[in-house]
Amino acid sequence: MVVDPFIRSFKLAGRPSHDPIASGLTNCPGKDCAMSQAVKANMQDMLTRMEPDLVPATVDVGNPVMAFCELVSTGGIETGVWSCTAGGWTIASYDVNEAMVMLAGRLRLTASDGTVTEVTEGDLFFIPKGWSGRWDTLEDMQKAYVIVP
Q: Are 123 and 69 in contact (CB under 8 A)?
């Protein structure tokens, strides 16, 4: 499925539904526990259970393939892991505040003002709501993320 303009895919109708509790990723005994209990998952296990994600229509470099595995999504907050193969696209306006840790790969973010941020394994980075520019996955990447509306 192609999306235009780039919008955080978790907000889009048609994104595959993922129930981390049903897939055995958490220590949570019921679907409502994310609101009242700690939830955990093994990162490597999550990376092996990833599902296809939507690709932005603004892709203009490569043919990136994206996947995700969600740990928790509640009250507009989402956390999980996401991967992307090499490719690049423009972003008119990022829809959410997102904090991320690069688990593998290399990414270049070029803001609309020309500021370039290179991200590699082990880097903690943040994209604010409303950010615009380019996202270029230079090497296949994996990230852990927390999204706040």
A: no
53 close to 3: Cβ distance less than 8 angstroms = no
CATH: 1.10.1780.10, 2.60.120.10, 3.30.70.1450, 3.30.565.10. Which one for 2-148?
A: 2.60.120.10
Cis preceding linkage at 56, omega within 30:
no
Copy the structure tokens of residue 31. Answer: 């679907």
Q: Are 92 and 130 in contact (CB under 8 A)?
A: no
Burial class (CB in 10 A: 0-12, 13-18, 19+), 44: exposed
In this structure, what DSSP letter does residue 69 have? Answer: E
Tens digit of each residue's pLDDT (9 = 90 or more) over 43-73: 999 999 999 999 999 999 999 999 999 999 9
Residue-wise pLDDT for 72-105, tens only, equals 998 889 999 999 999 999 999 999 999 999 999 9
Which amino acid is residue 79, in one-letter code?
A: T
